[in-house]
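To make the argument concrete, we let one protein speak, a sequence paired with a row of structure tokens, as a model reads it:
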Amino acid sequence: MLPSFRYVRPRTVAEAVKALAEPGARAHAGGTDLVGSLRDEVFDAKSVVSLSGLAELKGISATNDGGLRIGALATLAEIARHPEIAKGWPALSQGAAAAASPQLRNQGTLGGNLCQRPRCWYFRGDFACARKGGEICYAVEGENTYHAIFGGSGCFIVHPSDTASPLVALQATVRIAGPKGPRSLPVEKLFVLPAVDHTRETVLTPGEVITEILLPPPLAGGKGLYKKVRARGAWDFALGGVALALSVKDGKVASARVVLSGVAPTPWRVPEVEKLLVGRPLDAKVAAEAADLAVKGAEPMSGNEYKVPLVKGAVEEALLSLV
């Protein structure tokens, strides 16, 4: 059953910020994660603050510099079918289309997809794990089939979002409203590694809410995609994946951003692979070298060793598909 809580419908972003700053307040956008988390007692809520009436958080529109503004309440379905996103920022379009099921994409929002809580069964279950303030990560000695092979320090969740890695690859910016006023930061800086704080996933503080995401103009000679590997063709979270945002000039890679998904507590950027790609042609030899380098430093546990060759194959296949 859902717990008892106060339901708040603010009329402005300022009212929403004030309501969200109250102890025990939870933001309600699409609700696809919030409702299940409350029902399963992953966390509780003294109040639920609905953002659905805030027009400022909606819409997709071009910016003056040739980029794109996406409101935090834009649904994944809107993003997946938007022709300009598919043309100029295909990795994001494909990431949104790969998330969840059609019903959930129709309801789930971009802001919510970035801020969803981990899907780790220990966090979601009746365990006092490290992420819930306990002392241990049960995945280390327990069932860890779907857990992290990179970046796990005292907590081995994987970030569940299919839009986060593309947005990091595309160098997107997130705008945030809060009690201390608005602020902006790269999407890459939105997420928190367990080594910094294993009790939270984002840098958002009480009262803060994502209002919009800004995409820079498409790259000249740009190529991009998001490749997701999952157990089933739909509904499932990524076992591993990769977002690519490259520019090609005179047959060689001029710039590259490579970000893995489903393998770390945050979208996992691999700058060593980016450096390897720049100045070289996209061919089978380079793709194989990049794939090998992408999994360097991986630290699989007892049940997720398969992720190493899986990610290696995904990176190689993704790069070859852009040739």
